[in-house]
Amino acid sequence: MTSFTAIAFILLLALWALPLLLGFLSGRAYREGRGRVALGLFLFGVFLGFLARPRPLGLFFLLLGLLLGYGRLR
Question: What global pTM score does this model have?
Fold first, then answer.
């Protein structure tokens, strides 16, 4: 049986990783010319960024993912 702490840690990691992933996908979508898709992904990432504790970290991961996604294509 897993402890409550382990389950809470996994959920916290997911709350931190999702804004990063959504920011990355939003940056890629915006770069490809899909503005409405990028806006939807960005807004959902902002929502999840506000859910993550501490809040500045969740929003930082969102902006980091956005910059990584909008960066140069290889």
Answer: 0.83
